[in-house]
Amino acid sequence: MKTQDVRIYTAQRLHWLWALPDNQRRAELAKLRRGVGRAPGDLPELWGSFLRGMPESFQGGKNGPSHAEWAVYLALTLYAVHQQGNDQPMNRPGNTLGRAVRQLAERNTPAGQDWTEASVLRRFNALATAEEITEISHHLRGMIQLLSAAKNGGIPLDYPQLAADLYELQCTDPRYAQIPANVRLRWGQDLYRDSKPAPEENEKEN
């Protein structure tokens, strides 16, 4: 399944980045940041960063970048934005976009107020309703910048999963029309999922 392949390939590229010596990694991340707001392939200096080892089945043709190329490219360039200024890795398996936004909303909400009133949720809603990949990229960039600059340190994100989500959001095949809706539903589920055990669960554990 190509969604899983996109997730695995993105994880491999992130692993490659973190295996580089510090100076090389910083230079590579700076180079990737220059690709934000551009289309895959626009900057020849980035070709190796996201195309090295990419399966041929991912590659687009005369119609421009494929859905897989867009997904991987956005994940890697936005990761570079997220990592800037943060000493700890900003890629964390399992911390999906919905969960990360929930953490951001809770951090930004004053004591005694409901996190669901946080202004960041309006931005998240704009991202979740965007349909075209460049529009998604625009809203996602703003969200990543907020996660990177969060109080008490940046909030990490599962970037291989984000790449998989971005790939599925581009599904335009009418036979699989429900796929993008399912991605958005997962974001909502993760946003509202209570990370704390219910009281009865605590009692059972005790």
From TrEMBL:
Gene3D superfamilies: CRISPR-associated protein Cse2. This is Type I-E CRISPR-associated protein Cse2/CasB. CDD domains: Cse2_I-E. Coiled coil: none annotated.
